[in-house]
Amino acid sequence: KREKKFSRPDRKKIARYVTRTESHLEYLQSRGISPEVVKRYEVVSGKVWNGERELDALVLPYKRDGELLQVKRISTERPDGKKVIMA
């Protein structure tokens, strides 16, 4: 059995799929999530690849004691009714 290996996210790689738009705010507000909550949890807009094309996505940082542990991207577009998630 192989031991799992964990490494912290590379901020340079993260910057490649984060977009500097606020398109995520409108989507999250339509879901009942306020801009204050979005700001508190540092959710930003980005892109995720579904195997065919880039999709708009939410970029969610996972932190512990202020240290970045993981970044998850969840598509806001739903091709064929399925969401695309990348960790």
UniProtKB/TrEMBL annotation:
This chain's protein is named Uncharacterized protein
Q: Which organism is it from?
A: Escherichia coli
